[in-house]
Amino acid sequence: MSQQELVLDSGQGNGAVSEGRRTRSRLGLVVTGVVGGSLVALYAVAGPFVAPALRKICLPFVPATTAQVENVLKVLRTRSGTLVDIGSGDGRIVIAAAKCGFQASGLELNPWLVWYSRYKAWREGVHRSTSFHISDLWKASFAQYSNVVIFGVPQMMDQLELKLASELPSSAKVVACRFPFPTWVPESTEGEGIDTVWVYDAKTFQSGLHSGNMSKPLLEKNPDPHT
Asked: Which of 15, 147, 188, 225 is the most exposed place for a label (fewest CB within 10 A)?
């Protein structure tokens, strides 16, 4: 083989190596982009679900069963007016209540669930009598609601007792699902097992507040100016 042929063969080999390196580099960029985009998409979808769980007290999304929804509606069958579902999830309680004549609202931290609930209410034809809000329950006011539904967790129920007792009108009813309030005495219950709901009358638990049984934390927060 002549020297010229050797040079040509060497040049072709180097060119092939360079082309292979460029191909691998492009492939690496594509893989990096796909993985990075997937992680961003995963964070965008999962972030709103995970973020509430990072809070000190959270309301994990566990869809209400059909029996739970029926029990809530059963204990509120003689009621009307405004209703709020605390931790409304996919909106099924709010939508069912609106179909029964309530002006129903849902408070939910997860924006994806709020948007889905709004779409579902529109699809079910009750969007005019429902509203869904991206809201932290501890920053919301419940003074305008005559009916409250809560799917709570034990760690939050004692604090929620104080908030609701100090904000709700005396004509209000509170329905607790899955877990009862720790000190309130229910006026009735419906269902059994995980489908049990507890009904509380505001006049009853507010009388406990005013008599001093529940007032200590509130007095520490709002001291009496006359003492």
From this structure: 225
